[in-house]
Each structure stands twice: as structure tokens, then as C-alpha cells.
Specification:
8 helices; mainly alpha
């Protein structure tokens, strides 16, 4: 036998093996017959929608379950979105229902003037009810001043505490004046004093942490908490 004939036989044998494997994998009768010959058993699962009373792994079903079909009305919002996607640009489709009517008092007369910094409300010109509402919103000066004072044994920390207390008293005085007669000038000056005092309190906190001084840290925290309540 020549080498060419041997090569042809190898090709035929390979093709035969490929065909047999394909038949075993893709042809169910051949697959079942081969399994029965070699003694291999496989679990067979029931096909859906079969009326046979088959044996499942968890037992035989005892009753048939029928689903209930519920008719749900279509979503009007979804319909409107679908219509919007299919509507040409510039074309308005009519909406079912009555035409919109005019609301009495809406859009009649001139608009009120826009608020500005020059027409802030004066507390002396407000009614008693409006004054009570304003006092409920803004914290009273007496509540802010009712805080514990701390003194430190460290001279540098104690000096910084005194400076922050003096600036805090000036801020409270400006806040009391602003509550009596609010004005843009007092608002601007008070905001600047508040910002400067917050920076000083930050310096006091850092200094107290460096010196490990509890009194200075408590004083800085208490004053910062009360300063944040002041709103100009």
C-alpha cells in the first residue's frame, strides 16, 4: 500500500468519526440508541404544555393551575408619549375634553414691583403679627448671650479669648441694631464683622490645640456655635 493510499484511508476514517459524533450529538434517536447500547441513562425533562401526567423530581402535580387574565386599561400618559413620538414637528393634535377657560383674576392687572435692597421691611412699620413671625425666625440676642465664659491659665490663649469676646460683643451690638432697624448698610457691616470673628475663632482653636488648652477649645467652639446663629 502506497503512502498516498494510506493518506486517503486516514481522511476517510477521520470523516467517519466526525459524522458519527455529529449523529450522536444532534440526532436524538441515534443519541438514545447509543446510550442504551453503552448502558448510560440520562434524566429526561418533560416538555412544556404537555398534557401527560409526568413524574417530576418533586412529585406528580396534584392540580392544574389556571392563570387569570386581567384587562388593564391603557396608560393615557404612555399613549400621549407615543403620539408625541409620531407627531410631526409643529403639528398640534387636539386633546379630548373642553377647551381651557379663563381663570378669574389670573393675569389681570400690572405685576408687583420686584424686590430690591432698598425696600427691605422695617420692623417698626410691621404689624404685631408680622413682628411676632420675624422674632420667631431670628434668634433673640438674649439667647445668644446666655453662654458660659471660659478663662485659660495660658496667657497667650487667654489674650486671644479676650479679643474674640470683644469682637463677639461688638457683633451682638450690631445684630441688635440690625434687628431694630434693618438696612443694607448694617447688613453689609454685620456680615464683615461675622466673617472676621469666625477667622479669629479658627485661630483661637488652632492655638488652643497647640497648647493643649481645653478652656480655649471650649470657648472657641461655644462662640462659633452662637456666631453661626447670627444672620444678617
Amino acid at each position: 500500500m502506497t503512502s498516498k493510499n494510506k493518506e486517503i484511508l486516514w481522511y476517510i476514517a477521520g470523516a467517519t468519526i466526525v459524522v458519527l459524533v455529529a449523529l450522536y450529538l444532534f440526532v436524538p434517536p441515534v443519541h438514545s440508541w447509543v446510550n442504551s447500547v453503552i448502558g448510560r441513562e440520562e434524566k429526561s425533562f418533560p416538555k412544556p404544555n404537555s398534557g401527560d401526567d409526568v413524574e417530576y423530581e418533586y412529585g406528580t402535580p396534584v392540580e392544574d393551575i389556571e392563570g387569570e387574565r386581567i384587562d388593564v386599561p391603557r396608560d393615557s400618559l404612555l399613549d400621549s408619549l407615543l403620539m408625541a413620538d409620531t407627531t410631526l414637528v409643529g403639528v398640534v393634535r387636539p386633546v379630548d375634553g373642553p377647551a381651557p377657560a379663563h381663570v378669574e383674576g389670573f393675569g389681570e392687572g400690572p405685576l408687583p414691583p420686584a424686590p430690591s435692597e432698598d425696600n427691605l421691611p422695617n420692623k417698626n412699620e410691621l404689624s404685631p403679627e408680622e413682628q411676632a413671625q420675624l422674632e420667631n425666625i431670628a434668634p433673640s440676642v438674649e439667647d445668644i448671650l446666655d453662654i458660659e465664659r471660659h478663662s485659660s491659665s495660658n496667657p497667650a490663649v487667654n489674650k486671644k479669648i479676650a479679643e474674640c469676646r470683644l469682637a463677639f460683643d461688638k457683633l451682638i451690638s450690631a445684630y441688635r441694631e440690625y434687628q431694630t432697624e434693618p438696612s443694607p448698610k448694617l447688613k453689609t457691616e454685620g456680615a464683615k464683622q461675622k466673617e472676621a470673628l469666625l477667622k479669629s475663632l479658627t485661630q483661637l482653636m488652632k492655638l488652643s490645640q497647640t497648647k493643649n488648652d481645653d478652656a480655649g477649645m471650649e470657648e472657641a467652639a461655644d462662640l462659633r456655635r452662637e456666631v453661626n446663629k447670627v444672620e444678617f
